[in-house]
Amino acid sequence: MLSFNSSAKHFLLDGAPIELSPEELTEMNSMRWWHQIPFAPGVKSNGFSDGVRHISDYLLDEVDFKGKSVADIGCWDGFQLFFAEAHGARKVVGIDDLSQRHSGDNAREFAKRKLQSEVEFLDSNVYHLSPATHGAYDMVMMFGVIYHLVYPMLGIEKACSIARNEILFATHYIESKPEVPPFCILYENGELEGDMSNWSGPNLAWLEAALAIQGFEIVKAHRYFNDRITIHAKRVENQHTQNSRLNTVRDTTMIEEFRSRMEASS
Ligand SMILES: C[S@@+](CC[C@H](N)C(=O)[O-])C[C@H]1O[C@@H](n2cnc3c(N)ncnc32)[C@H](O)[C@@H]1O
User: What is the pLDDT of residues 73-123, one digit of tens each?
Assistant: First the structure.
């Protein structure tokens, strides 16, 4: 038995380690993880994505989680939710479409158990989210999902629909000069990193416009790596919400047809 002394809940606050028996170590190492989650010094899950490194990339160390209900769309093993919970979120809900992952292990339940987390996991495609079915949250996070979407505008609309006040997301994006209008590239044949699950490359103006249409205003945009950006946006009253332009758009038959087609195919 690896023996350590402190409450699991605070592992990301003060580095307090978690006890893992030899059997649990074997179990952890046999699972396919997405996130590297540190459980104790020198003991972390063997995921592809270094959760700790992404804390600053995703602005997790800047936003205030205290007392908030937080959902994370595309949460995979839940690292960012465990972080939010350790930093004072009162409720954390992970939403993921398990069919979109390239490995199926339920490692997140192992992490939840060991971290004594109260996170709740829901299985849903972002396109199917609604506040009536999935709840509404003070803050919605969505990291590494938008560029996987064929319909990024709809993904943003659905994510915003369950966000009461704030949205925090990270995505691949295309850098462009400020005078360039909003655009979003469609990667038809895996042109982005040779990955056929990558579909969309918006510029910042597109992200700003897409959020504005949903009634959100960017409060911080943080570029990391060459082509990644994290956006923190807050709900505001704006010209779109005041003019009810969205309702006009939603009334058109064309949009409804498009939605049914997309929902049937996902
Ligand atoms: C690149 S991983 C990012 C994982 C995690 N958010 C992070 O940043 O470390 C993409 C995640 O998005 C999820 N995903 C992709 N398309 C989705 C969709 N249409 N609806 C819901 N989740 C989706 C995948 O299942 C996966 O968990």
Answer: 999 999 999 999 999 999 999 999 988 887 667 899 999 999 989 999 999
C-beta 151 within 6 A of ligand 1: no
Residue 191 CA to ligand 1 center (angstroms) comes to: 19
Q: Is residue 204 domain-resident?
A: yes
Asked if 175 contacts 203 with a C-beta cutoff of 8 angstroms, the reply is: yes
Q: Model-level pTM?
A: 0.90
Residue with CA at minimum distance from ligand 1 atom 12: 74
| 3 in any annotated domain | no
CATH number of the domain where residue 104 is located: 3.40.50.150
List the domain range (segments joined by +) for residue 176: 53-237
Question: How many domains does one find in the chain?
Answer: 1
Q: What is the DSSP letter of 10?
A: G
121 lines ligand 1 (CB under 6 A): no
